Amino acid sequence: MTYMDLSDQLCNACATGNLLEIITLLQNGADVNIKNVFNRTAIQVVKLGDSRVIETLLQAGANPNVPDPSCGLTVTHDAAREGFVDSVRVLLKYGADVNMADERGRELNDLIYFSTPVVCALNIL
Q1: Domain 6-123 class, CATH top level
Q2: I want to staple 42 with a disulfide (CB 3.0 to 4.6 A). Which of 14, 92, 93, 122 is the partner?
Q3: Which stretch of 12-21, 48-57, 92-101, 115-124 has the lowest confidence by average pLDDT?
């Protein structure tokens, strides 16, 4: 078994939604904004449907506006596109920028246009 640094461990825990492991890693000094071996932060690889994990990362200081290095999308773009309403609400609560565009110029509004649950959620915020 090879050793993984804390950022890689944190990213793995976030990708699987392992909240207990995430909390333990954060308590042991894992930095939520350090990139893993794939050049992604924990919030960029988070299990999108788990708003508790997302909120835990944001409370620990994760930046919700870090664009993916390959396409420019943020976690908010991804959550909105996939219809994860609770996750979008949490991201917006912690300062996600709805005006950030991806490398194709698409903003959050462009991605949620066809996602009725997200549109409804944003209307009640």
Answers
A1: mainly alpha
A2: 14
A3: 115-124
